[in-house]
Recover the amino acids of this structure.
């Protein structure tokens, strides 16, 4: 299937590893000019590994100036930006069930990175995106945004807010022919997913603790009708499809790649 993304400039925020990196690699495979933005200096090595048509910039997405400097640098190298992906995300690192086991101070940073910083990036890129019909923005959310995950309430609430903001953006972009959507992962073997497992295990007696693999399989067997992990490259495939002309009538949508978890909840 020719998605006709050749030479279009895609920028991925939060791409040094995991789903963000898989999305970046998928855009590169379609022949896109690629910009990578991450707070980790490892993003430079990621860009080298992906290929010659890929450039990197380090930026803290909580800093407007750093966001704009990164975008300016990437635009100078690869031209106007056509597609933007916000794949930055953090959890609280604590097991928040019930929610009052958390401290109110566990909330601000999680909400800032997952929601407010996504809005910061959207503010920064919108003036470029609305110049050309067919441009897109994609946000990485979570099934936790839709089912109220009992493990990390700050994360769930922030991602739910991001789903709503994505819909606001989709409505505002629509008159310009620009689309916005979200991808919602279920169970994926990422560092964030492992941090949820680790936080929960710390609260259990040693005799009841499970390995990451045991915990994951038990959770999948209970919650996912298809009964399997999701893979990062599955998100890459959907991301490039949503950026393409073949998805020209898809906007304001949250696409679950979750083995049926939301449906089953």
């Amino acid at each position: 299937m020719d998605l006709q993304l050749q030479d279009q400039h895609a920028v991925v925020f939060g791409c040094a590893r995991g789903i963000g990196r898989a999305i970046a690699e998928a855009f590169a495979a379609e022949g896109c000019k690629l910009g990578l933005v991450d707070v980790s200096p490892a993003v430079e090595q990621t860009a080298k590994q992906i290929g010659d048509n890929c450039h990197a910039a380090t930026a803290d997405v909580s800093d407007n100036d750093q966001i704009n400097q990164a975008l300016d640098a990437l635009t100078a190298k690869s031209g106007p930006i056509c597609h933007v992906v916000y794949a930055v995300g953090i959890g609280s690192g604590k097991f928040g069930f019930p929610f009052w086991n958390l401290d109110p101070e566990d909330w601000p940073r999680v909400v800032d990175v997952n929601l407010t910083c996504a809005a910061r990036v959207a503010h920064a890129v919108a003036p470029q995106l609305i110049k050309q019909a067919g441009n897109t923005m994609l946000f990485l959310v979570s099934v936790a945004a839709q089912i109220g995950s009992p493990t990390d309430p700050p994360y769930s609430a922030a991602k739910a807010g991001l789903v709503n903001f994505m819909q606001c953006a989709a409505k505002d972009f629509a008159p310009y022919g620009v689309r916005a959507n979200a991808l919602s992962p279920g169970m994926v073997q990422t560092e964030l997913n492992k941090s949820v497992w680790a936080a929960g295990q710390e609260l259990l007696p040693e005799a009841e603790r499970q390995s990451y693999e045991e915990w994951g399989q038990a959770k999948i067997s209970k919650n996912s009708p298809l009964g399997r992990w999701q893979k990062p490259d599955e998100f890459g495939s959907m991301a490039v499809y949503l950026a393409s002309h073949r998805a020209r009538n898809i906007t304001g949508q949250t696409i679950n790649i979750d083995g049926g978890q939301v449906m089953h909840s």
Notes: The chain has one domain: 9-264. Strands lie at 9-13, 33-38, 54-58, 83-86, 136-140, 179-185, 254-257. The chain has a mean pLDDT of 94. The radius of gyration is 18 Å.
